[in-house]
Every structure is written in C-alpha cells, then in structure tokens.
Amino acid sequence: MAKEDSIHLEDKKNVPGWLKVVISLAVLAAVAVCLAIFFTQDLVKSAEGQLAALRSRDYSRAYYEYTAKDFKAATSLEAFQEFIKSHPALLHNDSASFNERTIENNVGTLHGTLVSTEGGVTPIEYKFVKEGERWKVLSMRLVPTGAVSTGIVTSKVTELVEPVEAQLAAFRSNDVAKAYFGYVSKDFQETTPLKSFREFVKSYPVLTRHHSATFSDGNVEGKQATLEAILNGDEVSTSVEYKLSKEDGRWKIWSMRLNLPTEAISREASPSEVEDLSDPVEAILAHLRAGDFTRAYYEYGSKEFQSATSLDAFREFIKAYPALTEHKTVSFETPSLHEDAATVVAMLTSSNGTTPVEYQLIRSGKNWKIWSMQILSKSTSPGHAPTFSTSDLINTIEAQLTALRANDVSKAYYAYTSKDFQRSTSASAFERFVQSHAILNSNQQANFSNLSFKNDVGTFQGTLVSTDQQTGRIEYDLIFEDGRWRILSIQLVSEKGDAGQKGTRETAFNDNSSNFRRNRGGSMELSKIVVGSEVDSNGHVTIPRTRFAQENNDLHVDLFVSNAQPGARTELIMEHIESKTRVPPVDTRIEDSGDTVLSFIFTPPAHGWPRGNYRLIARSSNGRERSQDFRMD
C-alpha cells in the first residue's frame, strides 16, 4: 500500500507547474460558464416563451404573460402588435440563440440572434426585470446589422443607444421635461431653453407617436459621438441624427436633427404638383385668417398631427405667432417632394414684415395633410434688424471660437452656424477650412470693430491672433434664426479689401497694419475715445471709465468721428505700456457720412488681462490720430 502511495506521489511531482495552473483555470472557467448558464436560463425561457407565442400569432399572450409592468405602461397592446407586424424577424421567427447572458443590478440582458423561417439572421437584444418569481421583458430591440460582432452588441453602441432610447421612451410618455433634463447635455440646455424644446417636440409628432426605433452604427471619437435612429410611425419613417458628448462619465445628447422624411433624395415638385401641395396650406391659412381654428385643425391636420397636438395646443401655437392670422399675402418657395412626403415653405407677409413657415405634409389617400408646421424665424421688416443687443452677436462668435480652441469643430459648426451656411458648406469642408488656418484652429484672442447692419444681416470685422502670434483680419456675417443669432458666413479678408467668397471658401489674408492706407478721409477728425465694460443695446459704452479690474471681461471702445467720409478707414491699436506689447490693430471701413461713432470690442487673453497701464491709439486713413490711456488693476 505504501508502495502504491509512493508511486502516486511520484507521478504528481512529474506534472509541470504551469500545466496545473492551466488545468485549474480551465476548471474554473468551465464552472463559471455553467453557473452563468444556470443563473440565466430563466431569462432564456422567458424570451423563448414569448417568441413561441409570436410564432403562433398569440399577441395577447406574448404581451400580457411575458412583458413587465413598465413595458405595458409605456406600450399598449395595439402598439406592441404593430411593432411585431412591422418586423418580420419577430413575426416569422423559427429559432433563437443567445450567446451573451448577464444579470447586473437586477436587470437581465440577453444578446443573440433570431433565425427566421426563411433563413434570415437578425441580432436581437432583450432586457428583463424580475417580477415575483419570473423574469419579464422590459425591452426588446432588433440591432441593425453592423452594430454587432458575432451576435454581441458592442459596448460603445450600447452606451450611445441607451440615452437616446430613454429619451424616446420619455417622448412616448409625453414627459418632455424628463426627455430634456434627463438626457440632454448642459451645452444643449444652455443653447435651447425648455420652452423652445417643447415647441420643437410639438412640431415633430413622430417623436411622440413612433412605435419603434432602429439604430445605425455609432461613431465615437474621444468625447464626441454620432448615432442615427430611424423612428417608425404609422405612416412615415423619419431619420434622426444624434450627436452626443461625454458629460460626467455619461453620454448625453448634444444635438438632434430630423431628416424629414428622407430629405437627402427629395426632388423639386413639378408645376402641377406645386398646386396640389400649396392648396392645403392656402386653405388652412384662409381658415386661420377667418379665425376658424377648429376647421383648420380637423380638415387639414393629419392623424399623427392631431394625435400629438390637441386642438387647444394648436390654438395656443397659432395665437403665439400673429403672422399666421394677420398676414395679407402668401407666396411659396418651390416645394420639395419625396414619395408620400413633402416640404412646403410659405412666406407670410404682413404689415410687420415677412415670416417664413415650413410645412411638412404627408399624403392621406388622394389628399395632402399637414404633418407638422414650424416657424423658421420671427417676422422682420425689410431692411430693419429685429430687436437685439450687440453682445448677442458677439457671444455667438466668441462661443464658436471657444469651441474651435477646444478642437470641437462639430460644435462650432452645428451649434453656431445658420441653416444656409450648413446647406452651402458641409461639416467636412468647414473642418478643412478651419484646419488650414491657424488663426481659427489655434485662436488665442479676438478683437472686433463696429457692427454694420444691412438687409437683416449683421456684420462684424475684427482681428484674430493665434497661439503662435499669427494675425489675420476676419469678417463675420450673422443672421437671426430660430430666436438666436447664427453665423451666415466667415471671411478671411485680404489687404486689398476683397473678402472673397461667402461661406468658408478659403481666401488669402495677411497683416495689413504696416500697409494701412492713407488716401481717403479728407477733413475727417477723430474727436474722442471712450472705454467701458457696460454697453447699451446698440453696443455703445454707457459708463466711460479709465480704471478696470484685471478680471474684467470684454473691453468696449467707442471712437467718435467727425465729418466721416464713406470708404475711409480707421484702425485701433491697444498697447500695454509697461511691456511695450501691442494687440494687433483692428481695422474697419466707414460706411456713413457726417458724425458717427465706431464701436470696437477687445477680448482678454486666455490668462486674463495683464495688470498695468494701457494706451489706445486710433488712426485714420487721412493721417489723423488720437489716443486714450486707461489702467488695469
């Protein structure tokens, strides 16, 4: 017996140590797999039970027996049936396999594939919650092809989809506040107040009335990401482009853009189609002018429009925009058309100006019905600016420059440029333009001269300084759109004064301070310079000062000019006396004759204003010069 024991011990000593480790790990892995299968088999049973009910077309059983209370609260039986019928992979399922199973924080998850009776394979994701002793379906999602790898959803796509799905669920429950505060980023909330967000949601019924959603591959670059969702409504499907940003470790919605419906392949309507599309819009406007809101709502609003917008809400919307009831004439831009969906822009002209209104229409039988309506901008009289503060325009420019300093070109493009800018210049073209000019992509400081305003377009001229001390003149055009000033064009200006093409087409630029022209202006005089930090709505200094705190933000300077001559030029230089350093000159062209005031804005460097004494030096193209000193404590 001792011999046998001795032989046994000798055999064990001959087993290499590394092999013992491998065998141990293999055993542990096998045990872990067995435990995972054991603890998650009830999830699989629940999913397979529901799929079996769907195969037999027993929708009620699939709904009432297998779905959770929260699922039922958010989705009616009718909506559930429509969802199943619209997805053949569920309706005609033959078998299913689930090769990733997890239970975390009392939520079970299955990732796998469905095989249809015709042999098609579709990735699917189930989430479960335990009610009593049974796991019930909390959500079910068909995952678009390409978003999965061997049937397992990638973590990045899942992270992006979760806030979007949660927001869509809030929309379906008509909880707009939850959709806003729970899932959009701080930047989104800063640029879009809740009131505007509510109006946006009301304008697009598909957000609240869709019965299902599918998602494309997500694209993640650092703390920025993009995702596309297809919202399936009763009559149309709509693509929504989401941009997300990482905030406090979570993905939040930074912007959302609806492509109504498949606008990328829409076409202009033919002359006969134009009449068919404009007729319902003209009819609804006629009823609104007559004060017959009820008839306008019921006769010309689509089923989806009426489902998402009550008659009372419709009345309130109409009352909020007098142009809808008080316009005198109506003209139409050429409508765009795609299959059974169309876009019509009506220009409503009244004594207060012109208001563009965009109508989305869908075909209902032989007739076109209103699917949504949106005021594109507030009424403005021709040649007159809407009420505004100069700082509103400057804030838009500075916010875009801040985004560019942070290398967030997408935000600089989507958050601060106008629709016309984006129509004429793609995001990629804008990025190329920015990257090719250091004064934009590495901007450190910006100074702007006075605002001019013509045909509802505000124009600022200024100078940008990059981190490597490159300088260049720049000109911005801005337009008032959807309640905010947005950038219509950016022009880098050459010395010859040729601003080049509108938009972001590259133009040459150089430092024109050494070649400042002295050939215009005649008897023009520079009579006074005032400096301050507080301005009125026109951007003029209200309280002139000569001492400022170091933490002061923008400095506003008014240059008073006597006997100004149109076409003459002025430049303003700011000098830090102790260090003998100068901010690059801000050059502007005078537009008016007689006595005028030119306004300039100087923004602080990234580290704040250096302490000490400063001097402002103004020069004109006819050789006149004036200076003003101030101090930064």
Could you explain how this protein is built, in words?
- The chain folds into five domains: 18-153, Nuclear Transport Factor 2, Chain: A (Roll); 158-259, Nuclear Transport Factor 2, Chain: A (Roll), CATH 3.10.450.50; 265-375, Nuclear Transport Factor 2, Chain: A (Roll); 390-511, Roll (Nuclear Transport Factor 2, Chain: A), CATH 3.10.450.50; 525-632, Immunoglobulin-like (Sandwich).
- Helix content is 33%, strand content 36%.
- The protein is built from 21 helices and 29 strands.
- The strands form six sheets. A seven-stranded antiparallel beta sheet has the order 21-20-19-18-27-24-22.
- The longest helix has 39 residues, at 17-55.
How are strands sequenced across the largest beta sheet?
Answer: 21-20-19-18-27-24-22
Q: Using DSSP, what is the number of strands?
A: 29
Whole-number tally of structural domains: 5
Low-confidence stretches: 1-13, 29-36, 144-156, 261-265, 378-386, 495-521
Which oligomeric state applies?
A: single chain
Any guess at the CATH architecture of the largest domain? Roll
Distance between the termini: 98 Å
CATH level 1 name of the largest domain: Alpha Beta
Classify the beta-strand content into a percent band.
Answer: 35-45%
Radius of gyration using CA atoms only: 32 Å
Percent helix, as a range, is: 25-40%
Count of helix runs: 21
Q: Give the overall shape.
A: globular
| Class of secondary structure makeup | alpha+beta
Looking at CATH, which topology of the largest domain would you report? Nuclear Transport Factor 2, Chain: A
**Averaging pLDDT over every residue, what do you get?**
76
Major sheet, described briefly? 7 strands, antiparallel
